[in-house]
Write a structure and sequence with these properties.
Elements (H helix, E strand, L loop, with lengths): L2 E6 L7 H15 L5 E6 L2 H4 L9 E4 L20 H6 L4 E4 L2 H5 L4 H13 L3 E6 L9 H13 L11 E5 L7 E2 L5 E2 L5 H19 L8 E4 L7 H5 L6 E4 L6 H11 L1
Parallel strand pairs: 1-2, 1-10, 2-3, 3-4, 4-5, 5-6, 6-9, 9-10
Antiparallel strand pairs: 7-8
Helix pairs in contact: 1-9, 6-7
The structure holds 2-phosphoglycolic acid.
2-phosphoglycolic acid binds next to strand 10.
Length: 257
């Protein structure tokens, strides 16, 4: 099965010109890749410009949890699953820790996942602990996130579900200077967590959930990407900062091909 490599641009870049350059640059590198599917998730405002690309799959970074009723959608500032679908969006990230930190609850995440799946958009559902404690409480934390996020979602929709294990402490951050700090999990731990997430899924939702891919995210770069993907049970990668530059992301793609 092909690995899934997801580029999360977050709130970057700041101009359409740069976004086009980045997208076209990534496209060029991606053209040569056979063993992976590459999903690029730009900010909403750029999505419409990239609808026609044949090489990359288009993803969004968020979706609203309600479709507009017949009378129209009175939700200022929100973007519906139908709008995304109309632009050729195939994937959406839901439950990213940066959205959770801004107030997104498990309940909201659950509604967003339902809405996206109902509209046949594949969901990249992010879970991950804030810190890893020696007593193993983080395992329960991740389990709760999975169960609450998927509450009462028919398992037959899981064919369009992808889980990303992304420990929050491992996400790259900017230090006070401009230099980013990378602090990835070890591939071995990530593998264990991927197996754990799958076990939780199967125990709660049944065997139908066994095919849900589990990705790893958090400080993935060109150097460490292959070591994660070589672990059995890791179905792909969610890449933030390294994907904001066509050259560094291209290098990553080269190293895993
Ligand atoms: P990072 O971000 O690769 O910069 O750590 C990953 C993410 O937050 O999705």
């Amino acid at each position: 099965m092909k690995k899934l490599i997801v580029a999360n641009w977050k709130m970057n870049p700041q101009t359409l010109k740069e976004a086009r350059e980045l997208f076209n640059g990534v496209s060029k590198y991606a053209k040569k890749i056979r063993n992976s599917k590459i999903v690029v998730c730009p900010p909403f405002v750029y999505l419409g410009f990239f609808s026609k690309n044949q090489i990359l799959f288009l993803g969004a970074q968020d979706v609203f949890w309600e479709n507009p009723p017949a009378g129209g959608g009175s939700y200022t500032g929100e973007i519906s699953a139908k709008m995304l679908k109309n632009l050729g969006v195939k994937y959406v990230i839901v439950g990213h820790s940066e959205c959770r930190q801004l107030g997104e609850t498990d309940e909201i995440i659950n509604k967003k996942i339902k809405q996206a799946l109902k509209n046949k958009i594949k969901v990249i559902f992010c879970v991950g602990e804030l810190k890893r404690d020696e007593g193993g409480e983080y395992l329960q934390f991740v389990k709760d996130e999975i169960i609450k996020g998927l509450d009462r979602i028919p398992a037959k929709l899981f064919k369009n579900l992808v889980i990303t294990y992304e420990p929050v402490w491992a996400i790259s951050s900017s230090a006070k200077s401009d230099k980013a700090q990378f602090n990835a999990d070890t591939p071995e731990n990530a593998r264990e967590m991927a197996i754990y997430a799958k076990r939780v899924l199967v125990s709660v939702f049944g065997r139908i959930a066994r095919n849900v891919p589990v990705l790893y995210g958090g400080s993935v770069d060109a150097k460490n990407a292959a070591s994660f993907l070589n672990k059995e049970g890791i179905g792909g990668l969610l890449v933030g900062r390294t994907s904001w530059n066509a050259k560094t992301f291209g290098e990553l793609l080269k190293n895993i091909s």
